[in-house]
Specification:
single chain; alpha/beta; 9-stranded mixed beta sheet; 46% helix; 20% strand
């Protein structure tokens, strides 16, 4: 996903600001015309309009899953307010009773001044809430565009008001502005990234949390597992989600025939569905999983369909603790060792492990075994694996790059890449 701001993002707040300014100036002109006490009336009108606008801004909606729907409701309220003001303002010249007396003046101030300004404030407050809660950082606050729009509205009103046959027609123009702004803002909201946190767990390395990310403009809906600032795992939701996880594709690609015993070691696989894939799809396979944080296993089981529990069951052994210690306690050999570099990112990557545990992990590899590192490209120092065979696979679907290492030459099936990936 990119961070490019949506096109015409500036237009809705500019139009709303212009409409608010036009409504304020039109109401001012109608209410002060023939009204006694210019300074007193001017103070009253501007004070009420300013207060109504401030109340609208103050009532900005709180963040939440239904924020977009509440912002849309505010647009509807704005259209209703300006429709009522336009109707009332158009009737003003033909019904002298509306302009006579304190009651008529007060009603005109509420209908043509306070209500539209309040509605414009609520719309801008909603736009602001949508912008500041945009986790993708694509939307910007509307203050500058709204101020420019207000200045434009004052100038336009001053130019047109003496020339139009009825001042109320200017409020009809506000309706057109708001309608256009609402249509544009619908596309702007499509670029808003919405994140809902589903679960949180404390840990020494940073909070473990699961969140849902939605971005309508790019048809993205996914569940993400974070350790502090590091994203450990992602799973697509619905038709717009991500493809099969990289490690699942790798184990399927390297899986031997059903009659061949197979042992797999997954380092950092606490939130991965690859171990379950191995035991479900190969009747003679055993999987060992080493994970640093128990909360990752818990949330992975709940939100990522891993089926993992700490301990031993269903040909799976899941251990939690310091990875150096867990790797150092290995007393068997494996045909495939999968290393999740995202799981090691909070440690500083693969080199966050001790050299002793790295060599222990390589020593645990069977003579024809394979080490798979992903989902990012990995380039070790040449002298570390100078006698090894390697290949980089671009895994189709989610953009992952998997690096394979083996003491023996890699077969054509391996270097063809899982599910149509390509080797380099």
């Amino acid at each position: 996903m990119t961070s490019r701001p949506p096109r015409l993002e500036w237009a809705p707040p500019l139009f709303v600001g212009a409409a608010a300014a036009i409504a304020a100036e039109v109401a001012l002109s109608l209410l002060l015309y023939g009204g006694p006490g210019l300074v007193r009336s001017l103070t009253t009108v501007l004070g009420v309009e300013g207060f109504a606008f401030a109340v609208g801004l103050w009532s900005a909606p709180a963040p939440g899953r239904d924020l977009v729907e509440r912002v849309r409701h505010r647009w509807i309220l704005g259209l209703i307010a300006f429709l009522v003001a336009a109707t009332y303002g158009s009737a003003w010249p033909f019904l002298p009773v509306l302009a006579e007396g304190r009651l008529g003046q007060a009603l005109g101030l509420v209908v043509m001044g306070a209500f539209p300004l309040y509605a414009a404030g609520t719309v801008l407050g909603g736009i602001t809430s949508a912008a500041v809660t945009d986790e993708g950082g694509r939307l910007s606050a509307p203050a500058t565009a709204a101020a420019v729009g207000a200045a434009f509205g004052f100038v336009l009103t001053g130019f047109l008001l003496p020339r139009v046959p009825m001042p109320g027609t200017m409020l009809v123009g506000c309706l057109v502005l708001l309608s256009a702004a609402g249509m544009i803002y619908g596309s702007v909201l499509g670029a808003r990234t919405e994140i809902v946190v589903k679960a949180r767990r404390p840990s020494r390395g940073g909070e473990i949390r699961v969140q849902e990310r939605h971005l309508d403009a790019e048809n993205v809906a996914q569940v993400e597992l974070f350790e502090g600032a590091f994203r450990r795992r992602v799973k697509g939701l619905g038709d717009g989600g991500s493809a099969t996880p990289w490690d699942v594709l790798v184990v399927r690609s390297l899986m031997p025939p059903p009659e061949t015993p197979w042992r797999v070691f997954h380092v950092g696989g606490g939130a991965s569905s690859a171990p379950r894939t191995v035991t479900r799809e190969h009747s003679l396979a055993d999987v060992d999983v080493a994970e640093r944080i128990a909360a990752v296993i818990e949330l992975g089981r709940e939100y990522f369909d891993t089926g993992l529990v700490v301990g031993s069951q269903d040909r799976q052994v899941v251990a939690v603790g310091n990875l150096d210690d867990l790797i150092g306690s290995v007393r068997t050999t494996y045909d495939l060792i999968v290393v999740d570099l995202d799981a090691l990112a909070p440690l500083g990557g693969l080199w966050g492990l001790s050299r002793a545990s790295l060599w222990q992990m390589l020593d645990a590899l069977s003579p024809s075994g394979v080490v798979a590192l992903g989902p990012h490209s990995f380039d070790p120092p040449p002298n570390e694996v100078k006698d090894w065979h390697s290949a980089k696979l671009e895994v189709s679907g989610d953009g992952a790059v998997v690096t394979l290492f083996s003491r023996t030459p890699l077969s054509e099936e391996m270097t063809a890449g899982p599910n149509g990936g390509s080797a380099s």
